[in-house]
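job 3f2a | input accepted
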Amino acid sequence: MPDVDEMKEGKKYYTDVPQKTEGFFLKGSNSLDWGMKNRLARIFNPETGRTVMLAIDHGYFQGPTTGLERIDINILPLIPYADTLMLTRGILRSIVSPSTIKPIVLRVSGGTSILSELSNEEIAVDIEESIRLNVCAMAVQVFIGGEYERQSIINMTKMVDIGNRYGIPTLAVTAVGTDMARDARYFRLATRICAELGAHYIKSYYIEDGFETVTASCPVPIVMAGGKKLPELDALTMAYNAIQQGASGVDMGRNIFQSDSPVSMLQAVRAVVHNNETPQKALDLYNTLKNQESA
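job 3f2a | predicted structure (295 res):
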């Protein structure tokens, strides 16, 4: 049947109002396809352009890390306070409820343990798994300067290619060997290589001298890696400095789940990332929430 409404006059087509074509809010992502942008907009808050990722994928190479012995007990209560959850498919399937609406960043590289050469990784998860698990991004470790540097870079580029085919972003995770200099020159090199070869965003470490040059010279978002456990004020200060110097968020693990009050710490980090709260005020928030929790 024809639509009778089509015969009526008086429809408003607003011929005097040009259609707006809005740019995408995330650095270096405007030319990506709709599905890719949609997934990135779930990882990064469109209002702030930032994210608080909770990393719990440590077990893929070092087993039951302190604080991750029982993910069902220690981590599940934290999920509501994170923007994104970064983990392995084994933990996702066995422990995380499929009713969660939190975006998932899936660890897809692996193949070695702390007992061997860590840079000798391969792609360990097929793209079909990422599609099947409905993830928002795939994380690949890249070892610039490592023994298997070339192999890790090719791992990343393969995931970029196949991720582009299916609309799933690739997160390049820059790994630093124990004998490498953690300075601005190294991180400018590592992050720029990953971006040049197609990574959609990059996880990298904070450095006190020159971090702003790392974020400025990288054409895609950089998310700060939390690294080893620090005192709460130091961790909040590091997060604050990284955000103020151009990071698009933080990806913290041990500084959250090894804290005396992980839920309180995660909320304090959120205040720093999304509200530009100062480290001291964020620490006050942490202590207040911690006291309420123990009351």
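job 3f2a | The longest strand covers residues 137-142.
job 3f2a | closed
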